Protein: Hydroxyneurosporene dehydrogenase
Amino acid sequence: MNITTDPLQEAWHRLDAPGSYEWWYFDAEDEAQGISVVFIWFAGFAFSPYYLSHYEEWKARRRADPPSPVDYAGFSFQLYENGKESINFIKEGPRELFASEDGGIGVRFEGNRFVYDPLQDEYRLSIDFTFPARDRSVHASFSFRPQHRFDYSLDTAANDGVDFRHQWVLSVPKAEVLGVLDLKSLSSGKRKVLQFRGRGYHDHNLGTVPMYESIDRWYWGRTFSQRYDLIYYVVFLRGRASRPQAVMLVRDHESGEQSVSAAVSVSEKRFTRGLFAPVHAQSLRLEAPGVSVEVRHGESLDAGPFYLRYGSRFSMTIGEERLEKVRGISEFLNPKPLHSKVMQFFTASRVLRDGKSSVMYTLYNFFKQQFDFRRF
Structure:
């Protein structure tokens, strides 16, 4: 596995091996208004039931045509208000809907685009989609301005003795974020405009085989406190009894010092599961020289058969200083259910495939719409 902060690695890698995936992730929170947003672009949608079904049929020689990652491109947008999901839009489609910046950093899926301006050191996001299943249209523009970056790289693949490769690009550990969200009801024409001012984060992941062939489980999280910013990334490799590959990055705002540790001890505690949620630890303890962190997964912001997103509380000892219950965001992923035909069927209820109808998708969004008490 590679870990890098090199901004040049953000460009589309044009992976073409069947099962390859690549995604660009942005999230931001406006604490004053209780609003948070997530934007993700995909080239080779790692969680697509359609892509993975095609891959498995090709691998089993039931199909002759190998799946091309770019024919399973996509975009997702999530809006949370006061800790509750307001919009969860996921759409995928063929290569005609996807484009990358020629010679630069940025991608587009339909009317949704991000581009990086190196002269201004700014990421500009423009969003434009309709969501008929939930009676919405969304137009938005956002600016992510990095407040600092890390300078770090680690290549463990050479020593792993394995035939897969996953790369995490930590692009922007913290950003100043400004934006405008224009939400409209398609049926009534009513509008809600939200002005956004907050802090955000951006990273980039890619790999050359389906995640369930290489990764057993995966944890990620971040917190911004008054003095410290902390990010962790933990990957348990499939079929490996050794300790996970983990990295923890800390920035001290008072001194300006940054530290990165790849010698992280990881302990999972209080395992549980939900009806459709995977088995996961309710708390995570991370130990590195000079840093001790306990992450308690709190309210679930998003849940599925392979993925969980939390509002979490971080208790940290950094040097001589102790911080208790600092707010943060954390995620858990267990890719194994992605291999299950049953779970692929249920996952399809949340993914709109361009040009393909789905009874599950229609029913899921119908019931979500009926219980959406934040309609306007």
Summary: Helices lie at 49-59, 157-160, 341-347, 359-370. The mean pLDDT is 91. The domain at 1-209+340-376 is CATH 2.40.370.10 (AttH-like fold).
